[in-house]
Amino acid sequence: MSVDLxxxxxxxxxxxxxxxxxxxxAIPAIVLSALWxxxxxxGLMARSRLVGRITADYVExxxxxxxxxxxFFIFFGSGVLGxxxxxxxxxxxxxxxxxxxxxxxxxxxxxxxxxxxxxEAGVALGLTKRKTFAIVVLPQAIRKxxxxxxxxxxxxxxxxxxxxxxxxxxxxxxxxLLADRTAAVFEIFFTLALFYLALTAIFAGAMRLVERRVRxx
Amino acid sequence: MNASWVRQVRTAAFVLLAATGIAALAAGTAIxxxxxxxxxxxxxxxxxxxxxxxxxxxxxxxxxxxxLVGFDIDIAQLIAKSLLGDANKIEFVKVTSEGRxxxxxxxxxxxxxxxxxxxxDRALHVAFTHxxxxxxxSILVREDAKVDSLAALNDEKFTLANLSNxxxxxxxxxxxxxxxxxxxxxxxxxxxxxxxxxxxAMQMDTPVLNWYAANNKGLxxxxxxxxxxxxxxxxxxPGDFTLWxxxxxxxxxxxxxxxxxxxxxxxxxxxxxxxxPERFYGQSGK
Lengths: 217, 286
Hints:
In chain A, 82% of the residues lie in helices and 0% in strands. By secondary structure, chain A is mainly α. In chain A, helix 4 (87-112) packs across helix 6.
């Protein structure tokens, strides 16, 4: 079987519609995951044992169940409980809940990677603990976690495809509809892969720019 | 900076080259395959490989014990029995709605029997036999939605669950344009949407809905059907006339020939009534 290029240009507009939804889902999912991870990492590193325990349990729970199952759970569960959430909101919630936990672990790794000696040095110089964290530990930690964050962002972009199963008309969803209408599965999924590749490449490129921008020396 | 550009260009060229190679290889095998029929391969292998669904009752679904059962499964076994002399000389490949096409076109399965409606645009990419069963599309509603007709369902406050095929979307636009629409990739997810209250109604093949309504409380099938009678058929990779002819002959034998008795038995088992008669005229010719 050969690839029909004319066919690909015919399906591209429909896929582009899906692309818009994918982007509309991926951007808030990435931003909210990065934000939601801040209170989570604060909980994980809290001095209070109870808070630490509860946060760690949350992280384990969402990290150890598939995001697809979480989407189903939120989407169908909210229906059963009588306040049906839309597929888009259910997917966004599931992505943020799960990836927030992953990103929190990335943050924690970044903060832990800064030697304890530096914090001690800060305190010895007369800085408060809070100040030490803000001007000594945090700036270094942020630079260290950027590559891992980039990686996680790519995972989120790819995971948005799971939202197709709960009726969100994103890229994969449109591709499935097209594939079912025409049975030309190879051409369609080939094009679909190119769309995702473009999306993740742009994101990864942007993250590399950020990384270079904030590099020290 | 410069070196990294060179490296990137080199990588891109390599990927392109590899892709071209794979495409050429695929084209080569396609030509080689058309020389002999897949039918000989099936007979030599002594086993029929069938692509089917596992979530579409009562045609092809998994029962409580995890066994694949349904009308289509029984039909596939009748075909295996007629072709290889044993209903158990068969292997099922479970596929999704859009995954059924590559399952046969890639050669993973010999044929597909998956409650598949014949449409002209589908026939561009797979070869269909004549239909082995008539099908229509109906709508299942929650009784608590208090809807008795298509006209009543055509309201913004109702949500209709569809399967992810465009024919469903077309019908929703035509018959209930005001209702909201949700789209799922399996009949079971569609059904879960109705059960959970995310949707008040779903459209699906009439026999499937009759089966759902009979096995669940608080659901009913609207009396009107959407559109015309359609045909469900066996599909396979196009271009293999010998295999297609055998399968098409088998369908004719089931619906109007030597296998009609067994076909009727299967039909009755799943739908509680007899299939359409073998002929519209009696044998005595009066």
